[in-house]
Amino acid sequence: MDYTQLKTAIQRFGEMLEAYRNNAGRPPLEQEAVQDSLIKRFEYTLEVAWKICKKHLEEEGFAEAATGSPKSIIRLAAQRNLISNPETWFNYLQFRQDTSHDYSVDKAEVVLDVAEGFYEDVVNLYRGMTGESF
Length: 134
What we know:
Blueprint: H1 4-21, H2 28-59, H3 70-79, H4 86-101, H5 105-130
Helix pairs in contact: 1-2, 1-5, 2-3, 2-4, 2-5, 3-4, 4-5
């Protein structure tokens, strides 16, 4: 199975997370652009992560993954020890839905607050599926 799309998404998310960590001192417009980009990369990386996980589980022989929703895929991934805390991933899904439909500062702040944890979780998912270090 090809995990390149997920690896690239994680790398790009990580790059923007690093830019966000170093956001102080930039002009306000640049700060906002970095934040917006981090949120979009969060949305994209989460979407790629659950879909690649779905394919991974299908290839592992779990027929129920073929028709699974994001939440059911996360539950199955947790059962297979690919995800340590499905509730955290359910929250990520909710945050993604919230930010894609509501561009308020409050919704954006929530994603910015969980970005570090999400990065660690998605890297661990990648490692669990591929056996590769990141």
